[in-house]
TrEMBL record:
A GO molecular-function descriptor: ATP hydrolysis activity
UniProt keyword Transport present: yes
Family, per entry: Belongs to the ABC transporter superfamily.
The keyword ATP-binding is annotated on this UniProt entry: yes
Protein name: ABC-2 type transport system ATP-binding protein
Superkingdom of the source species: Bacteria
SUPFAM superfamilies: P-loop containing nucleoside triphosphate hydrolases
Coiled coil feature spans: none
Domain ABC transporter, residue spans: 5-236
Organism: Micromonospora rhizosphaerae
Amino acid sequence: MSAVIEIDGLRKTFHTLRQGRRVAVDGFDLRVDAGQIHGFLGPNGSGKTTTLRALLGLVRADGGRMSMLGAPSPQRLPEVAGRVGAIVESPQFFGNFTARRTLRLLALAGGVPTGRVDEVLEQVGLRDRGDERVKGYSLGMKQRLAVASALLKSPELLILDEPANGLDPAGIREMRDLMRSLAEAGVTVLLSSHILAEIQLICDHVTIISHGRRVAAGPVDEVLAGFDQHEYAVRVAEPERAGELLRALGLSVTAQPDRLVVGGVDEPELITRTLGEQGVWVRELVPLRPDLESVFLELTGTGPHPTIPRQVDDSLLPEQTQKDAAIDLDARVGDSREVGA
Ligand SMILES: Nc1ncnc2c1ncn2[C@@H]1O[C@H](COP(=O)(O)OP(=O)(O)OP(=O)(O)O)[C@@H](O)[C@H]1O
Ligand SMILES: [Mg+2]
C-alpha cells in the first residue's frame, strides 16, 4: 500500500501579541494510503486545520517532515499541486455570481475544460440550482459548491476541512456516497471533522488528534474494536437473581433500571445457558459495541461535564489519556512516536 500523505513529527507554534505562545501541533503523525477515505478527527482547536494548512504550504511548519503523492511538502508542492484538490476553511465566493459562473471562472483559471463544470455540479447535487446566485445559497449548498470547486481538476487526492459542516443528515449521506464513488474511481480522500457520526458514516480509516498529537489511528472498525469491552445488555424477569448467577461466573454485572450490563463476556451463550439452567429466562441479549463517539470522548477527554461548561482547551493532553487507551492499530502507520511511549 503506498502512502499518499505522510506526516512525521509535525510541529507548529503560533506566537501572538495578546495570547503569546500557542502550540497548535505538537509532533503529529499521519499516514493516508491510496484509496482510503480517511477521517481526521479531533475536538475544536486540536490542530486539524493547522495540520492541513501546513501540509498545503499555507502556513510554515516549525518542524517535522511531510509529503504528498511522494513529493516532500512544501518544497516540491508545485510538482503535485495539479493532482490535489483541497478546501481548507470555508472558501469565500462572490455572492453575486452563480455557482456555474464561479466554477467556469475557476476552470478557466485552472486550465480545466469548462465541460467539467456541469459534471461537478451534478456530482455534488447542485445541477438544478447552479444558475442561482451564491448569496442565496444555504450553508450546506455553499459547502457543496466548495467541494465542486475542489473536484474540478479531477484530483487524485482530495483534502477537505470540515466538508460536512452545515449539511443536513441527507446531505451527509450524499457526501458519503460522493466520497465512496470518488474512492471507487481511485481518489484518495482526507477529510477533517469534529463530528463523530460523520466520520463513522463516511470514512473507512481514522486518525484522532488531541492537543496537536495523534492519539489513535487505524481502520475505523479496528479503532472501535480496540475499545470493545465485550459487554452485553441482558433483560430478564428476575434481575437480582440473574445478577448473582452471572457474578458467580466471574463476570462484571452492573444493574441498570431496566437491564443488566454484563462485561467481560467472551461467549454470550454462557449467559443464556447459565440463566436458562436456573429457570431465569432471557428476554433480550444485546451486544454493546463501542461507537466512535464514546471512543473519541475517552481518548480526548471531551465528555460533557454535568455542571461546568467545558472550555475548548479542556480536552486531555495525550499523556493524560490512559496509557492503554492510546492505540495505534494500523501497523502501517509505522513506528512513529506514540502516546505515552
Ligand atoms: N493563525 C493563528 N494564530 C494564533 N493561533 C492560532 C492560529 N491558527 C490556529 N491557532 C491556534 O491553534 C490551535 C489549533 O487550531 P486549529 O484551527 O488547527 O484547530 P482545529 O482542530 O482545526 O479546530 P476546529 O475543529 O475548531 O476547526 C488553536 O488553539 C488555535 O487557537
Ligand atoms: Mg479547523
